[in-house]
Amino acid sequence: MSILFTPIKMGGLEIKNRFIQSATYECLSGTNGEVTDGLINRYRNLAQGEVGLTIPGHMYVHPLGRGHWHQTGIDRDELVPGLRKLVEAVHHEGGKIVFQLGHGGLQSHKSVTGHPAVGPSAIRTDPLDFVRPKVMREEDIREAIQAFGQAAARAVEAGADGVQLHAAHGYLINEFLSPFFNRREDKWGGSDENRFRFLKEILLAVKKVLADGRALLVKLNAHDYTPRPGITPSLAVQYARWLVESGIDGLEISCGTAAFSPMNSVRGGIPVEDFLRSFPWWKKPLGRFMVKKWIGKYNFEEAFNQEAAKLIRPVLNGIPLFLVGGLRTKAKMEEILENKYADGISMSRPFIKEPSLVKKFREGKAEAVACVSCNRCAACIIKNEMPLRCYQKETSPANQGIGLTGDGPRNC
């Protein structure tokens, strides 16, 4: 039997195979953050497709940490019944589900929250709006830490099999960890130990409420790819050591930040026109100039976080490492596990196109994913607030790499 279909444990949680659906913003929740039938159906389908562990996209733990209108919330008690229905749907199909807890930080939007974005330092993150966030005070930091703990308690109440703290992609925890985003000189910055303090305090708050048998996972950037050095693989190794000491049950590594290096985490096609659909007419010229500069810089590369995994896994002392990023063939996935570069295979875009991919692999009906990494899904959900699904169209060689046009926003 392929190693891909052997079980693995994360603390007290066991999943039946090595496949993890990496958390992805679904744009499927209600405008108040509530779970919808569409969200439930997505994760039911993945569980039916035999994905061992599903992780819904970053649920906002605090009203100021919300980045999108259709993002799932876990910041208040009235959302728990809907979250419980989501868990029950996955469990009914034999799957496991862990909630990803996040705070948008600098990447939250005033148009959604009604308040300025907040972060560890006042650095400009939006190259089009030139918005500087509000610097978090001690009481703001403590409130955010408490919000993560309270959200974890709601995850337990909803019956989730664990939580994953989103410390990647330029969101709030990543911002505190990164020397690029965190320019503070108090106890929350100025040194690697101080920059780690925010995540360490969150871990302590979450562990207090996380019931036995539920997993505590972290998603960590191995490389920020910011204009000035942020988290690099060597710093990620140090953070991984401290995460082990803090008692985590599993680590997923990724890369890139939504504000400064968005395409590093989704390497492949650059659908220019799809990215520009959400821009007002007066911003389109500058937006087109900026997005076209991405062409050729983020070409698809198989297993593009593998080298970082080779550095990080040896310091984890047996705690499972999940690798995401450009995993497209069954043979490559088996190679990664057999060589002990990682312990689990985490994917996002392939599962958007093929919820039944794992079952196809197990039954010998596929040896590679069907996803071509065109990134129309990413452009549609992030910039146009359209429901998560595969928006791939047939394209001629002349259109490859510069995007695909449609008849309107609903044809993204």
- Tell me the Rg in angstroms: 20 Å
Largest sheet: 10 strands, parallel
Number of beta-strand segments: 14
Number of helices: 14
What is the helix fraction of residues, given as a range?
A: 25-40%
Show unreliable segments: 394-411
Structural class: alpha/beta
% residues in beta strands:
5-15%
Shape: globular
| String of helices and strands | EEEHEEHEEHEEHEHHEHEHHHEHEHHH
Q: How confident is the prediction overall: mean pLDDT?
A: 93
General description of the model:
With 412 residues, the protein is α/β, with parallel strands linked by helices. Helix 1 (37-48) runs parallel beside helix 2, helix 2 crosses helix 4 (138-158) and helix 4 packs parallel to helix 6. Strand 11 (215-223), helix 7 (233-245) and strand 12 (250-255) form a beta-alpha-beta unit. The chain is built from 14 helices and 14 strands. The longest helix has 21 residues, at 138-158. Strands 5-7-10-11-12-13-14-3-4-6 form a ten-stranded parallel β-sheet. It starts with 7 loop residues before the first strand and ends in a 28-residue tail after the last helix.
Question: What topology emerges from the helices and strands here?
Answer:
Blueprint: E1 8-10, E2 13-15, E3 19-21, H1 37-48, E4 53-54, E5 59-60, H2 80-92, E6 96-97, E7 99-102, H3 110-113, E8 118-119, E9 134-135, H4 138-158, E10 162-167, H5 172-177, H6 192-209, E11 215-223, H7 233-245, E12 250-255, H8 272-276, H9 284-292, H10 306-312, E13 321-324, H11 330-338, E14 344-347, H12 349-353, H13 357-362, H14 376-384
Parallel strand pairs: 3-4, 3-14, 4-6, 5-7, 7-10, 8-9, 10-11, 11-12, 12-13, 13-14
Antiparallel strand pairs: 1-2
Helix pairs in contact: 1-2, 2-4, 4-6
